[in-house]
């Protein structure tokens, strides 16, 4: 039986108790040490009871706890938590307050009732064989919903890993990109960051309480080419006016836009041009296939734009001569409207192609080349021969002169409404008569017009 002797008036009571928790101690065994306090020549017995209890929780961990209660101000508690998951030893913490003393030692391998995180990614339902697709010019994000269940601590680490994939396997090497933050629950990928291809995005969440308690979830995304914006002339208007003696320059190699690159590479494309007399004829074709305007077979059709093809000159760069076409003056007839079409096929990827249409109204007199476009190009989406605008969104248009420019005395904007004639498959245009009436109400500006 251990004996502790204390001098009178001393506020600190050292205790030398040795307790060995073991499942071999019967539940009803008790040991009663005697503590003697030298105060006024009196001996005060203290009842200290040691009880050993063995508890086996449901999660296959064994917890043995020995508690030494006391009727005085000194308590020594030793707690042992064991588990088969991992082992972490916590330092001993001693706290001394007036009239009391506490010492705790904990050996922790895992917090009780601590489970692996549950991760849900959005967008979901992707795989290596069926990845989600985003265009390279589009920014996108992957968000995660993480469920944590740990009674001791919810602290965790988050890490995203990006791997490039083939059709059958993903690389073990992690793609490093400074513009991508990989330590947040949501992963944001800016536009033009990743090259074309398929990627695996893997989120790993680890618990601080037990590093082996971790979970992973993956999403698969394929970066595909964006649709190019083909412009036969600068800014891509639908119609222009030219004098019959003036040269007409169609230059998609200079004015087209590839959203995936900073500058458009004209040499990456194959160009074919087509022409018809509008709206009386369709494009010359054989067996449903349109004939390019430089094809000699077009001469047999009444819809042919040229009596001869000597006025057609390709003036593009050496590695892409057809990227620019000049139609010499006197090649087109006065008081006639022509529709030109260009199709462009990517030389590296035949599935990537684009096209544009342009109406050219030919007059007897020389004309300034006036072009127009949207101030914010993304608010005007191309739709074959026209452009889409949102009727509930304000749209701003601008105009400028690019050839044969003279002193400008006045600018007048005319607005037309088109209705498709289902019989002739031709759009009939009717002038909007109330532009002046709604000036500064629906329509604003002179050089620049804003439609509300």
By DSSP, the count of extended strands is 33
Q: At the first level of CATH, what is the class of the largest domain?
A: Mainly Beta
Distance between the termini: 96 Å
- Uncertain parts: 1-110
The number of helical elements comes to 1
Largest sheet, strands/sense/barrel: 5 strands, mixed
InterPro entries: PKD/REJ-like
Protein name: PKD/REJ-like domain-containing protein
Domain PKD/REJ-like: 145-430
Organism: Rotaria socialis
Furnish the topology, listing elements before pairings.
Layout: E1 3-7, E2 34-38, E3 51-55, E4 62-68, E5 76-82, E6 88-89, E7 93-97, E8 100-104, E9 106-108, E10 118-122, E11 132-135, E12 140-147, E13 156-165, E14 187-189, E15 197-207, E16 214-224, E17 239-243, E18 248-250, H1 252-255, E19 269-278, E20 285-286, E21 289-290, E22 312-314, E23 325-327, E24 336-346, E25 353-363, E26 369-374, E27 381-383, E28 386-388, E29 395-403, E30 416-421, E31 426-431, E32 443-444, E33 448-451
Parallel strand pairs: 1-2, 5-9, 11-16, 17-25
Antiparallel strand pairs: 3-4, 4-5, 6-9, 7-8, 10-12, 12-14, 13-15, 15-16, 18-23, 19-24, 20-21, 22-23, 24-25, 26-29, 27-28, 29-33, 30-31, 32-33
Q: How would you describe what is shown here?
A:
With 452 residues, the chain is mainly β. The chain has three domains: 3-108, no CATH class; 118-224, Immunoglobulins (Immunoglobulin-like); 239-368, Sandwich (Immunoglobulin-like), CATH 2.60.40.10. Helix content is 1%, strand content 41%. It is built from one helix and 33 strands. The chain has one helix spanning 252-255; strands at 3-7, 34-38, 51-55, 62-68, 76-82, 88-89, 93-97, 100-104, 106-108, 118-122, 132-135, 140-147, 156-165, 187-189, 197-207, 214-224, 239-243, 248-250, 269-278, 285-286, 289-290, 312-314, 325-327, 336-346, 353-363, 369-374, 381-383, 386-388, 395-403, 416-421, 426-431, 443-444, 448-451. The strands form eleven sheets. Strands 3-4-5-9-6 form a five-stranded mixed beta sheet, with no helix packed on it. It comes from Rotaria socialis. Residues 145-430 form the PKD/REJ-like domain. Pfam families: REJ (PF02010).
């Amino acid at each position: 039986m251990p004996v502790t002797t204390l001098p009178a008036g001393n506020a600190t009571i050292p205790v030398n108790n040795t307790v060995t928790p073991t499942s071999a101690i019967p539940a009803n065994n008790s040991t009663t040490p005697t503590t003697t306090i030298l105060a006024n020549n009196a001996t005060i017995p203290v009842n200290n009871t040691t009880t050993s209890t063995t508890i086996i929780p449901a999660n296959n961990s064994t917890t043995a706890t020995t508690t030494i209660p006391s009727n005085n101000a000194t308590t020594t508690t030793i707690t042992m938590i064991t588990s088969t998951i991992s082992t972490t030893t916590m330092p001993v913490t001693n706290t001394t307050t007036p009239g009391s003393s506490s010492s705790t030692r904990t050996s922790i391998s895992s917090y009780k009732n601590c489970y692996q995180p549950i991760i849900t990614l959005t967008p979901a339902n992707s795989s290596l064989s069926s990845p989600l697709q985003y265009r390279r010019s589009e920014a996108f994000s992957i968000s995660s919903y993480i469920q944590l269940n740990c009674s001791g601590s919810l602290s965790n680490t988050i890490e995203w890993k990006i791997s490039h994939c083939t059709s059958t396997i993903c690389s073990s090497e992690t793609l490093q990109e400074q513009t991508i933050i990989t330590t947040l629950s949501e992963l944001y990928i800016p536009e033009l960051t990743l090259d074309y291809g398929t990627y695996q995005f893997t989120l790993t969440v680890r618990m601080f309480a037990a590093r082996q308690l971790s979970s992973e979830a993956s999403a698969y995304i394929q970066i595909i080419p964006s649709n190019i914006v083909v412009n036969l002339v600068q800014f891509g208007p639908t119609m222009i006016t030219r004098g019959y003696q003036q040269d007409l320059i169609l230059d998609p190699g200079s004015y087209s836009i590839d959203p995936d690159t900073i500058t458009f590479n004209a040499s990456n494309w194959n160009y074919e041009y087509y022409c018809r007399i509008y709206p009386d004829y369709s494009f010359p074709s054989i067996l449903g296939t349109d004939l390019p305007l430089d094809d000699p077979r077009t001469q047999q059709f009444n819809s042919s734009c040229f009596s001869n093809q000597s006025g057609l000159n390709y003036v593009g760069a050496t590695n892409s001569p057809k990227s620019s076409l000049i139609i010499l003056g006197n090649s087109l007839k006065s008081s006639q409207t022509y529709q030109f079409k260009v199709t462009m096929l990517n030389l590296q990827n035949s599935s990537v192609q684009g096209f544009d249409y342009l109406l050219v109204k030919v007059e007897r007199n020389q004309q300034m080349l006036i072009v127009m476009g949207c101030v914010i190009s993304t608010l005007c989406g191309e739709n074959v021969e026209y452009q889409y605008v949102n009727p509930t969104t304000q749209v701003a248009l601008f105009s400028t002169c690019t050839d044969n420019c003279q002193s400008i005395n006045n600018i007048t904007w005319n607005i037309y409404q088109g209705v498709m004639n289902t019989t002739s498959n031709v759009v009939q245009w009717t002038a909007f008569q109330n532009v002046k009436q709604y000036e500064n109400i629906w329509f604003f500006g002179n050089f620049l017009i804003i439609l509300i």
